[in-house]
Amino acid sequence: MPFQTGMSKVFAGIFVALTVSIIGGTIAMVILYKMDLSEANPTPRPTFPPTTTELPPVMRLPKSLVPESYTIFFQPHLYTRIIEEVNVTSPNQTFLFTGNSTVHFHCVQNTFSIYLHSRDLTVSDPLVRNEDTNERIRSIVKHHGDETDFLEVQLDDVLEAGGNYSLFLAFRGEISDYLEGLFLSTYVEGNPEYEDDPNAERCLAATNLQPTDARRLFPCFDEPEMKAVFYVTIIHRRDTTALGNAAVQESVIIDDEWKRTRFHVTPRMSTYLLAFTVSEFTSVESSYERVKIKTYARPEAIAAGHAQYASSITGKILSFYEKIFEINYEQSKLDQIALPDLNPSAMENWGLVTYQQGDLLYQEGVSSLLHKEEIAKLIAHELAHQWFGNLVTMKWWNEVWLNEGFATYMSDFAVNAVEPAFNIKDLFVMDNLHIAFEEDALASSHPLSPPAEDVQTTAEITGMFDAISYSKGAIVLRMLADVVGETVFNKGIKMYLKAFKGENTDHNNLWDFIQKAEDENRETKNIAELMHPWTNQMGYPVITINTTTGEIYQKQFLFNHSVESSLSWKIPINYMSNVSASARVWLYATGPVKYEEFISNKGEWILANINCTGYYRVNYNQENWQRLLTQLETNQHRIPLMNRGQLVDDAFNLARAKLLDVTLALNSTRFLSKEKEYLPWESAIRNLKYFVLMFDRTEVNGPMQAYLRKQVKGLYNYFRNYTDNSTVPEDHSSQHNQINAIQVACSNGLPECIEMAQKQFADWMNSNNTNNIHPNLRSTIYCQAVAAGGKKEWEFAWNKYLSSRDTSEKDQLRHALSCTRKIWLLNRYLEYTLDPEKIRLMDVASTIFSIGRNVAGQALAWNFIRAHWEYVSQGGGSLLIAGVSSRFSTQFELEELERFQADYDLGAAYRTVSLAIEQTCVNIQWVRENRDTVLQWFEGETATVEW
Ligand SMILES: *[C@@H]1O[C@H](CO)[C@@H](O)[C@H](O)[C@H]1NC(C)=O
Ligand SMILES: *[C@@H]1O[C@H](CO)[C@@H](O)[C@H](O)[C@H]1NC(C)=O
Ligand SMILES: *[C@@H]1O[C@H](CO)[C@@H](O)[C@H](O)[C@H]1NC(C)=O
Ligand SMILES: *[C@@H]1O[C@H](CO)[C@@H](O)[C@H](O)[C@H]1NC(C)=O
Ligand SMILES: *[C@@H]1O[C@H](CO)[C@@H](O)[C@H](O)[C@H]1NC(C)=O
Ligand SMILES: [Zn+2]
């Protein structure tokens, strides 16, 4: 699955770093029971029928049984169309699903009990058979009904090591409303004017099982290492199509109502990858060599060609991976389906990849050109999982980074191969490095590979799907690839995939094969030793280079400078100067270590971490900083593009951690008045965002806005010919930067920008439905026009939101509605989030998030969240907290947060509240210490401008 779950692109832009990590050193792990699994004795024989209610020994399944195959029947009784009969008051619909499964397994250790997982299912009719003798073993089913989700089948006779057995169970459950297990999704098909017609509503059923929801679908050994093959049959309504992981073997009509679709056997895989859908969707086909690729969506969307873009790149991406991994995709078909509802935004089920429709569909002339980038990245991410994750899977969820870090890392190459004009490689640094840096600088972060014992409950497992696993995982792999060279790295991962095909691994297995490739290349680096600190420790280092003495040392980079740390890393340092080309040295110890190379003899500057290939920050002595900033202001092109962005990012973050003066950080933005490139601007905008959040409720706001207007004016004018005519430049990074220019200019009150936004929006309002605003610019212009406008603009946008059938347009409008400065409109909008007819549940959290990020809406959103926590948190409690607490910087706000944590049932969001509390403490202190300096600096920079 991709990172930034449940968040559409429009929202992703304003979403700086949502820090949600469940595990971490400070949180006590709930390990309920301990058991020595190596114990040779079988589980004690229960009295039969059992009288005790003894709890199972650990949260993990015993390793006595090894599943080999499942034969499963599923029958969702759902109707896709609701038929309203005259006399029936409630809709004619049913959410029941029934089924049965037979799992064949091998016994490796004597046992009197079969433990497997099951949640929210009614399980009956157990039948245990000795497959070798065909004898039946008397058994009874017992639910533990606790957090383990264990279903115990207690046996009258021992299962013996070496024997083969099978277990049949019938089950029934309910199709979920909450996007988990087998869930319901609805949409409206047909003419939008019939929106109110219940006959236009359509239902479908789809599964979403990662990480621990397979157990909601059928009783199973629901752990990633318990791989098996699956023979699946779906019994579904006659007028629907059933899709599964594997190709259809046979689909027959069995009576007036039902159809039976039997699928070929799946590859050997983990339970969380199982998937099926039952819907009326249609598809577009784009076969590639042996693989039949079909992209499914609402019939209307298919007919309108919205799946065309996705369909056109999928085969190319698959082919790219097949070539670099030298292993063919395992199946004869690959289905992708654009679901009206799904959280996260996509899931890599083997052979049946599911997507939130807005993230897969593209509408020519309506969707932003930049949306193609997101679609390509997402498909590339999910397809990379067909190898990293599906074919070779992490042993346990504590190392989900082996799935997610790799998928994130590889997707970058795939997109670059398929869409070179996207220039994705540079953006990769922005996307991942900064997000990882942000989260990993907190004392509450966690290592890429924490001990397996620390990750046991579903909440702990879900918590592993965070920026560390995705972004740090990818960045650390990129660093290793840079150190050993891409050729060696790729050779290593090819060997690794071949060796572990169909199996499970941990990070040592990966290092072994990179080592093999390295050895074959006659290099001598010890990969496991180099990588150990990066995977087994949390955090990352900042190195300090003193160009006066040539001395260099490292320490852990933490925002909270009062936390003591003695961690150290093995750091590859690429560097250059204004008189010499790039070279590399290593820092193995804490230091200081002296390097002649780093002594500046004639006042030249030295720059380290060229192109940001290393996962660390760099600090310098004052003189060197000064020389680097002077270089930026005189001719920034002497500094590589990525480093122009990184210097700004490092300066701001070092200042935040009190390792550098805040004025030096602010000085690092001076060169922007002449800078036209995206990366440095984006980096500065993200960093200044913190200043905006801390100060936009204070007297700093005036001079701060004046400074930003002054800096952005050049950039705004650079794109002005495009913007005024509502057109866009050719290349993607300029397109991104044009949007930045408008955003910064308008939100800081550059009059020509606001006029432009109002004019373009008014033209649309007065035009009888012809919208001439370029799709790229819509999101920004809608937001700025709503912000500058009043009731008329807001209501126009709201009506457009209601009537639009296009998901990305809907998202843009939904975001724009949160931009208003009118309190009463924001209040009305908050109320609307309680009505699923107005705002779908899956959109509630991101909507309130945006309102909470608006300076005018923050306090309203905070009250609202507390008043309606139970409902609104369903859509993503962590996101709500992150949005609303982002400005918290007073003692009062801190106390409110603490009270909130104590009084509310926060579930998975508890951790986010802890992080928010930690962040608020940091903010309070930061504001206290920096407010005067920052105010003076902005006033000094703008002494000659009006504000
Ligand atoms: C509907 O109600 C009418 C009048 O009460 C009755 O005559 C008819 O049989 C009902 N139809 C069904 C299908 O129940
Ligand atoms: C629902 O509608 C179907 C199809 O018209 C019908 O066969 C079924 O009996 C109805 N069920 C209920 C509970 O009304
Ligand atoms: C399992 O379910 C399928 C489909 O409903 C049914 O045909 C089959 O008889 C069931 N198996 C057993 C053993 O009940
Ligand atoms: C840094 O990146 C640029 C642009 O991608 C590239 O041209 C340059 O060779 C890279 N420098 C090093 C030292 O790898
Ligand atoms: C660099 O070294 C000089 C000379 O020893 C010292 O005065 C200065 O404080 C050092 N700067 C840093 C940032 O370590
Ligand atoms: Zn993923």
Strand residues, percent: 15-25%
* Gyration radius, in Å: 29 Å
Bound ligands, each once: 2-acetamido-2-deoxy-beta-D-glucopyranose, zinc ion
CATH C-level class of the domain at 67-280 is Mainly Beta
Shape: globular
Helix share of residues? 40-55%
**Count of DSSP H/I helices:** 30
Classified in CATH, the superfamily of the domain at 67-280 is tricorn interacting facor f3 domain
**Spatial order of the strands forming the largest sheet:** 5-4-8-2-1-11-14-13
C-alpha end-to-end distance: 47 Å
Q: In the CATH scheme, what's the topology name of the domain at 67-280?
A: Immunoglobulin-like
The largest sheet is:
8 strands, mixed
CATH architecture of the domain at 67-280: Sandwich
- Total strands: the figure is 29
Cofactor: Zn(2+)
EC number: 3.4.11.-
Domain Aminopeptidase N-like N-terminal: 67-273
Protein name: Aminopeptidase
